[in-house]
């Protein structure tokens, strides 16, 4: 991780992180995010076509949608991974998840150094090769953008974070811009893609809820109209459904922190120098805050129900200053996809409960095997 993201936001000490996060946050303001909705809409139209012909390997299908949308919004380039099935870059990235994932470290710890060396020789080189390929692929796009900028500088207060950094090349060298772009693309793709897979699978498990979502979408947007910013705030029930899906199946299940001074919580003290993990999945299914926690109930996200809970009972995007910078980007993108897909397809799944979905968790959570979720055109 450190090797790939060394110069990025993720690994900066607080004093550098603070200034950079503030700078980048301006590019995630509401007016800028609103201007991205056209890309979410256009790419979700492609997704609808893809789903008509290609109904398997859903992690790849939704990951490709997310990657195309992200790169188009941020550097103005669509790589058409949704339709270019020969490009296997995202699937190859899964090797990295395997390599960095729990299994490697758990086994490495149990059987000692020899197992680590064996794992590295078996999987490490492959992971390294994929990382370099991904890096080169994305860095190349930043260079293209840079060349465009040099020819024709854009003077605008509403720039994507890459363009905003390119505008301040005096403080952001090219290498840093490239690394940030790679971090953001990685942080956006699997998280959002996997969430979409889970949302549709849960909608497939609860057809009555799916029909209510369909009704709301058709009433507020229509069957064929392009999806625009103003539509998104009208999808109140759909939004509750999305939040409930991501409560039960968060694509990021834990975050870690290094404790820099003693912290007392209740009668326990966590001493300075400790690494701790906050288990998001556990918090989201804690019966103290979520009665009958395994029940799928979108009304938990009615405003009056939210008001009854402490704000940290739902930490899908983490919380505090180091939370997810892309949370609104992800939420808006997911809403557009749900609206466009549900008005075009009836979704079904054989699972009767989330317990039947065997999960595996590396950096992000997925099912162990191909997921059972099917899309049947409504027309
Ligand atoms: C459903 C989708 C997403 C989920 C569940 C998610 C979750 C998270 C979580 C839990 C963190 C905090 C990590 C920590 O506290 O250590 C985080 C950080 C981050 N996320 Fe997301 N994320 C999502 C989508 C996105 C998107 C779309 C982007 C980019 C547009 C993004 C960019 C980032 C970045 C750059 C950080 C690090 C922020 C920092 O250290 O200041 N994420 N995300």
Automatic annotation (TrEMBL):
Q: Which residues bind heme per the record?
A: 324
Q: How does it sit in the membrane?
A: Peripheral membrane protein
Q: Where in the cell is it found?
A: Endoplasmic reticulum membrane; Microsome membrane
PANTHER family in alphabetical order: CYTOCHROME P450 4C3-RELATED (PTHR24291:SF189), CYTOCHROME P450 FAMILY 4 (PTHR24291)
InterPro entries per the record? Cyt_P450 (IPR001128), Cyt_P450_CS (IPR017972), Cyt_P450_E_grp-I (IPR002401), Cyt_P450_sf (IPR036396), Cytochrome_P450_Monoox (IPR050196)
User: In which organism is this protein found?
Assistant: Sitophilus oryzae
Q: Which is an annotated GO molecular function term of this record?
A: heme binding
Q: What is the lineage of its organism?
A: Eukaryota, Metazoa, Ecdysozoa, Arthropoda, Hexapoda
Q: Can you quote a single GO CC term? A: endoplasmic reticulum membrane
SUPFAM superfamilies found in the cross-reference section: Cytochrome P450 (SSF48264)
Required co-factor(s) are:
heme
Q: What does this protein do?
A: May be involved in the metabolism of insect hormones and in the breakdown of synthetic insecticides.
Similarity-based family: Belongs to the cytochrome P450 family.
Listed A to Z, the keywords are: Endoplasmic reticulum, Heme, Iron, Membrane, Metal-binding, Microsome, Monooxygenase, Oxidoreductase
Record-linked Pfam families:
p450
Kindly provide the name given to this protein in its UniProt entry: Cytochrome P450 4C1-like isoform X1
